[in-house]
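## retry 2 of 3
previous attempt timed out at serialization; input unchanged, resubmitting
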Amino acid sequence: MKKTAFILGALLFVFTSCEKTDTVAAANTDNQSVTVGHGQDGIQDDVSNPNIVQLAVKNPDLSTLVTAVQTAKLEGALSSTGPFTVFAPLNSAFDKLPAGTVDGLLKPEKNDELSDILSYHTYVGVIKEDQMADGQTLGMVNGKNIKISMVNGKPVINGKARIMATVPASNGVVYAIDEVLLPEKQ
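## retry succeeded, writing output
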């Protein structure tokens, strides 16, 4: 019983000390408190292997994706431990969408649709390119599947998106792709 109580106490400590924001005492004469947000996405670490969000932010070819992830408030989720496989559309992929599509999706009233599209690009777990096979399906975060086909020995997602680059991250792998994956409406 003591062991169970100790474990429960330790878990309670871990969960309460990992809140999204903490209040810290400011170093001034007013003794005011300052709220500082520092979830997993707020950790500053220039030494370790960067996570998926940190990689994307540093890559100018993924700026549209970064804007979409920030608008949908998904930075925290994609900065967490994972592991994740993210099929990250390049800016040029977003440019292929009909005019006004991206701007429309960035509006607050389209947040659910934007989140659905972004979560259709994310797989929980790491799947390496050499593990992908013709006819393979992957269940994405939004509950829908993507299909992998092999063309000339290279994976193609949903019959059109090609992997342009592969970048490992501390919490998974990022595949830069040349098309935006759009889930079928049901």
